[in-house]
Amino acid sequence: MATGNEPRNSKASTGVRVEIDLPDGLNGVRWRAILAALTQADRYGHTRADHGATVWAEIDQDDQKEGVP
User: Fold this and answer.
1) Which residues face 15 on adjacent strands?
2) 8 A C-beta contact, residue 32 and residue 62
3) Where would you tag: which of 6, 20, 41, 59 has the fewest CB atoms within 10 A of its CB?
4) What is the pLDDT of residues 23-67, one digit of tens each?
């Protein structure tokens, strides 16, 4: 919600990967919300290219987590 863009989900080798494009001109409040969400992931990063910037997060599937058979 902090980016205003739809996330893209894909399968990662250990679980799921979520990517989202970043709009230009994010303010500090929105950046902090994005960073707070990213730190909940097992791995995360930021990619910058000519066409814009993207953040990504990977969440491992853990059979020990509640609700996973």
Assistant:
1) 12, 60
2) no
3) 6
4) 988 899 999 999 999 999 999 999 998 888 999 999 998 754 555
